[in-house]
Every structure is written in structure tokens, then in C-alpha cells.
Design goal:
It is a peripheral membrane protein. The protein is α+β, with helices and mostly antiparallel strands. It has two helices and six strands. It has a six-stranded antiparallel beta sheet, covered by helices on one side. The structure holds tetradecanoyl-COA.
Length: 152
């Protein structure tokens, strides 16, 4: 554990990717997300995320939305957490097929952000998402660790 957990920040990886803490060491997004720019993402659901036959697990779809919704706001605010995430599953999402996910900032005031995104295959929407993000307080991770320690 770092001395100051709130020093945590996302920097481009060796290959220039913006990756979460879990994927940075491997320098690849294990969810299958490749950024085109800050609001467009080429995504392929890896076969190991299959839920039903040939169909993505709904948790994979939610995780992809969580990631891209944060990435859409990351260039403006690097210290974000997700406060809420709502996903509408419109059609089954196939594994191992090229998907496009677009994301946008809908509103931002102070620490509060609302963002939305859409996942599509060849122009047909498969799922949409809305999220509330919040700018972390400067002591967010330290406060979490103190709370956790008090429950040991
Ligand atoms: C990570 C980003 C990486 C980007 C990488 C590029 C790709 C990234 C993609 C990946 C992106 C992935 C992104 C993700 O998925 S981030 C991971 C998923 N999201 C979270 O973990 C957020 C958890 N929720 C919170 O931290 C707070 O509720 C927030 C910040 C949303 C509001 O809290 P805020 O302070 O603004 O409002 P409040 O004062 O009303 O508090 C509400 C309640 O919460 C308690 N509380 C608050 N804070 C803490 C704390 N630190 N430690 C312990 N407790 C805390 C507080 O005491 C109160 O409880 P109670 O007193 O009512 O009982």
C-alpha cells in the first residue's frame, strides 16, 4: 500500500493507454476497450466474459460503461469516482465482435458530474448507460483506509 493513497493518479501507460489500477501492470485493458479519442471507444468483449451462449455477461457491459464514462470526464477532472450507474440492456451483446461505445458529459457543476454512453454494433444500439460521477475529496482513499482499519 502506498504511503499516501491519495497520491494515486492515472498516467498514460508505456504504450500510451489510460488504464485503471488493475490493468496498468499488464499494459492492456482486460475488458477489451481501446480508446479512439476521449469520447469514442472501440470495444470487443473477450470470450471469457461470456454469460449466455455467445453473449456478453451483463456485468461486463456495466464495467465497460463505468470505465468509458469516467474516461470521458478524465481529461477535465482526473480525480473521479462513480456515485451511481444505470444500464439499459436493449439487445444481447455478442462476444468477439467489434462494438462502438460513445460517451459524453451531460452536466458538470462543482463536484457533481452526469455522463451518458451508448454501445452499438454496426449502428444498432445494444445498451445505454447514465452515471453520476463525483470529484473525490482530497482525502478519499485515506478516509477509506481509516474506515477499513476501524472495522478490523
Ligand atoms: C479510479 C479512476 C481511474 C481512471 C482510470 C482510467 C480509467 C478508469 C476507469 C475506471 C473508473 C472506475 C471508477 C469507479 O468505478 S470508482 C469505484 C466505485 N465507486 C466508489 O467506490 C465510490 C464509493 N462512494 C463514495 O466514495 C461516496 O459515497 C461518494 C464519493 C460517491 C460520495 O461521498 P461524498 O463525501 O461526496 O458525499 P457524502 O459526504 O454525502 O458521503 C456519503 C457517505 O459516504 C461516506 N464516505 C464518503 N467518502 C468516503 C470515503 N472515502 N471512505 C469511506 N466513507 C466515505 C460518508 O461518510 C457518507 O456516509 P454516511 O456518513 O452517510 O454513513
Amino acid at each position: 500500500m502506498p504511503d499516501d493513497p491519495d497520491a494515486f493518479a492515472i498516467y498514460p501507460s508505456a504504450s500510451g493507454r489510460l488504464l485503471c489500477g488493475g490493468c496498468a501492470a499488464e499494459d492492456r485493458c482486460r475488458l477489451g476497450i481501446a480508446a479512439v479519442d476521449a469520447t469514442r471507444f472501440d470495444v470487443v468483449c473477450p470470450a471469457h466474459w461470456q454469460g449466455g451462449p455467445g453473449v456478453a455477461h451483463g456485468g461486463w457491459t456495466a464495467a465497460v460503461f463505468d470505465e468509458v464514462l469516467n474516461l470521458a470526464a478524465l481529461s477535465t477532472e482526473p480525480r473521479l469516482v462513480t456515485k451511481s450507474l444505470t444500464v439499459s440492456y436493449l439487445r444481447p451483446v455478442p462476444v468477439e465482435r467489434p462494438l462502438l461505445v460513445t460517451a459524453q458529459i451531460d452536466h458538470h457543476a462543482g463536484r457533481d458530474w452526469t455522463v451518458s454512453a451508448r454501445m452499438s454494433l454496426a449502428g444498432t444500439p445494444l445498451a445505454t448507460a447514465h452515471a453520476e460521477l463525483r470529484t473525490r475529496r482530497p482525502d478519499h482513499y485515506a478516509r477509506h483506509e481509516a474506515w477499513l482499519a476501524s472495522h478490523n
